[in-house]
Fold this protein.
Amino acid sequence: MKHMPGVLIVEDESAIAELIAVNLRHNGFRPTWAMDSASAQRELDAVLPDVILLDWMLPGETGLALAKRWRANPRTKGVPIIMLTARGDESDRVAGLDAGADDYIAKPFSTKELLARIRAVLRRRAPEQVGGLVSIGALSLDASTHRVSFNDQMLKLGPTEFKLLHYLMNHAERVHSRSQLLDKVWGDHVFIEERTVDVHVKRLREALGADAGHMVETVRGAGYRLTSQSTRVVATQTTA
Ligand code: CA
């Protein structure tokens, strides 16, 4: 089952909101619409979307004030915000980005451009959070409930091991170097040593147990790979 990213549209002009919503639905997103700051806040309190499209000029609190507030709140600060506005000059753009918006799009915009920007912020902000349920062989990971199971047996993973496994499962069968994993799983924390990756891979294998642990392979001189074709069986055969 594919995860449909939720998009909260905060826009007081119903014609624009409707047009955006129709296009989003058409392209595999789940849009919800709030027409003012109060209802936007209620929506956010109820459920966190994957992206917020935020109009600048709203009745009551402005989009700019909302962006600042949501960025300051630990619960909402990780949700990407794209500001929508008719105001296209540079000082507004800077003010929007300073308030914590991830991107900025000036009206009128094409649907194509909007979709491209939504996809871009989703990729940038949380590459390891995109996608709900992933299964490789008997190993399953559900990102929405943070559950990992092997042969329907629940496994307990630490938060870093979970993120690491999620990334590896979303990019299975490919070899990832330590520095690539640091970049994709640890994000901006450039001061972490590459050896840290080895430590967490070891912990991940331990948490996965004997059978699933073998799916995380060390590729000598290159890095790590998650594979459904474990070489464990092959290793018992004679190698020439
Ligand atoms: Ca408006």
In short: The first strand starts at residue 6 and ends at 10. Residues 195-213 form the longest helix (19 residues). The helical segments are 14-26, 37-46, 63-72, 90-98, 111-125, 159-170, 178-186, 195-213. The chain has eight helices and eleven strands.
